[in-house]
Specification:
By secondary structure, the chain is of the alpha/beta class. The chain has 11 helices and 12 strands. It has 2 domains: about 15-105, Nitrogenase molybdenum iron protein domain (Rossmann fold); about 145-275, Rossmann fold. Strand 3 and strand 4 (about 65) form a beta hairpin.
């Protein structure tokens, strides 16, 4: 895609991806526009961003940005993801200098923070964000202690006819790994396609553990999970029998940004430390 000449101090940034939007906000930078989630997801932006996006214009969905709206915003820098936006890079670069970040693996979310900081000449601030994250991870590890870290932690939810789980190279999986928490055996693996692990409902044993986190979207995507939790099969899980199933926010646990990472840590402190 060649080199991109980036303005020294861009003032009209447009993001085409939610991680870039959240990381910009964490750096104290407000873009003039952003793409949002598509209609399928039932939300515009993640709940943890909803009180932070006043004054930001929408430019379509992240998988299909509206180029006409983008032009109207007169951006001086466009930020996207290579895997998602490379097909329209030429059109984007004709509107404004465009940077597409690499994200081949969801566990590389911290590198996105650093890459964004480098592009905007905010590397010290980006490094500080990650140090703060690292400090909280260390605090959680210390409060859990050796016994707490031996818990098997499962992340799973039902959608359609299958059970989905987060691999160790997922966003939330990488956070659990940073803390040093064990995963349920079937989930303790890297997915080569960088996607979620999928199990049939008959393989419910694959999602059991000492603790089970069940991400909840807060919209129609939860219907299959809610129905499955009423089935007798659900009651066979050890985590269910011991009352250690926790509904957490799907958007937090799949966020791919520094703000979402802190939301996940908040849940881990809340549900794992207090009980110990």
């Amino acid at each position: 895609m060649g080199e991109t000449c980036i303005p020294q101090t861009p003032e009209r940034i447009v993001t085409l991806t939610m991680p870039a939007l959240a990381n910009l906000i964490a750096l104290g930078i407000q873009p003039v526009g952003t793409a949002t989630y598509g209609a399928f997801y039932g939300i515009t932006v993640q709940p943890y961003l909803q009180d932070k996006v006043d004054g930001i214009d929408w430019v379509g969905s992240n998988d299909q940005p509206n180029l006409e709206k983008l032009i109207q915003l007169n951006p001086d820098l466009i930020l996207g993801i290579k895997k998602q936006h490379e097909p329209i890079y030429k059109q984007l670069s004709q509107i404004a200098p465009t940077v597409l970040f690499e994200l081949e693996d969801r566990s590389q979310w911290q590198q996105l923070v650093l890459d964004l900081g480098a592009v905007l000449d905010h590397t010290p601030a980006a490094e500080k964000l990650l140090r703060t994250y690292g400090k909280r991870v260390s605090e959680l590890r210390e409060q859990l202690g050796e016994q707490g870290l031996q818990q098997e932690v499962s992340i799973a939810y039902v959608m359609g006819g299958d059970i989905y789980s987060e691999a160790t190279n997922s966003f939330s999986g990488s956070i659990l790994a940073d803390v040093g928490l064990r995963r349920s055996p079937a989930q303790e693996r890297v997915d080569p396609n960088n996607d979620r692990l999928i199990f049939s409902q008959e393989r419910i044993d694959t999602i059991d553990g000492d603790v089970l986190f069940v991400p909840k979207s807060g919209n129609q995507l939860d219907q299959d999970q809610d129905a499955f939790m009423q089935k007798p099969l659900w009651q066979t899980l050890k985590a269910v029998q011991q009352g250690r199933v926790y509904r957490v926010n799907l958007w937090d646990w799949t966020g791919l940004d520094i703000l979402a990472a802190h939301e996940v840590l908040d849940d881990l402190f809340k549900y794992l430390v207090i009980e110990e």
